[in-house]
Amino acid sequence: MLLSIQETAQQVTEGLEQTEKKEFSIINIILEGGVGGQIIIGLLFVLFIVAVYIYFERLMAIKSASKIDDNFMNQIKDHVSNGKIEAAQMLCASEKTPVAALIQKGISRIGKPLEDIHTAIENAGRLEIYKLEKNVSVLATISGAAPMIGFLGTVVGMIISIFEIANSGGNIDIKTLAGGLYTAMTTTVAGLVVGIVGYMAYNHLVVKTDKIIYKMEANSLEFFDLLNEPA
C-alpha cells in the first residue's frame, strides 16, 4: 500500500513537472495548433501587415494634402482681382494640394460661363477625392474579412477536435483535443485583432479625408464668390 501511494505521488509530481515545463507564449500556442492553424495565422499576419502599411501610407498622404497656406485664398483673390491669372495659376501649382488643384482648374476656366467652371471644378474634385481614398477600401475589406477567416479557423479546429474524439475509441483526453482547441481559439483571436485594427484604421482615415473634402468645398465656394463679385 505504501509503495503504491509513493508511486502515485511520484507520477503526480512528474506530471506537474511536465506541466510546468510548458511555457505560455504566443509562438508555442501557434505551433501547437497544427498546420491548418498556422496557415490561417500566417494569412491573418499578412493582412495585418497590409493594413498597417496602407494606414500609414494614406495617413502621410492625407497629412501632406491638408497642408495649405492660410493666406492662400487671399493671394488668389488679389491675383484674380488684378487680372494676374498666370500668377494665380503658378501659385496653385506651387501648393500641390487638392484645394489648390481645384482652384487652379477654376482659374483655367475664367471667362467661360459659371456653369462650365462649376462642372470643371466638380470633376477635378472627384479626381482628387479618388486620389485621397486610394486603397482605403482595402482596409474596409480587411476589417470584414479577417474575423471571417478567424472563424474559419475556429471551424477547422473544432473539426480536428471531433475527428480526434472519433478516433480515440471513447477515451477522451484533453491532450488529444488540445491541437484542435488551439487552432480554434488562436485563429479566432487573431482574426478579431486584425479586424479591429483594420476597422479603426479605416474609420480614422475616413474622418481625415472628410476634413480635406470640407476644405475643398469651402474654398471652392469662396472662389465662386470671388467670380460673382461685381467688377
From TrEMBL:
Membrane-crossing segments per the record = 35-56, 136-160, 180-202
Keywords in alphabetical order, please: Cell membrane, Membrane, Protein transport, Transmembrane, Transmembrane helix, Transport
Task: Report the residue ranges that make up the MotA/TolQ/ExbB proton channel domain in this protein.
Answer: 96-217
Bilayer topology reads: Multi-pass membrane protein
Where does it localize? Answer: Cell membrane; Membrane
Source taxon at top rank: Bacteria
Q: Which Pfam families match?
A: MotA_ExbB
State whether keyword Isomerase applies.
no
Main subcellular location of this protein, as a coarse class: membrane
Kindly give the PANTHER family that the UniProt entry links to this protein.
Answer: PROTEIN TOLQ (PTHR30625), TOLQ-RELATED (PTHR30625:SF17)
What protein family does this chain belong to? Belongs to the exbB/tolQ family.
- Can you say what this protein is called? MotA/TolQ/ExbB proton channel family protein
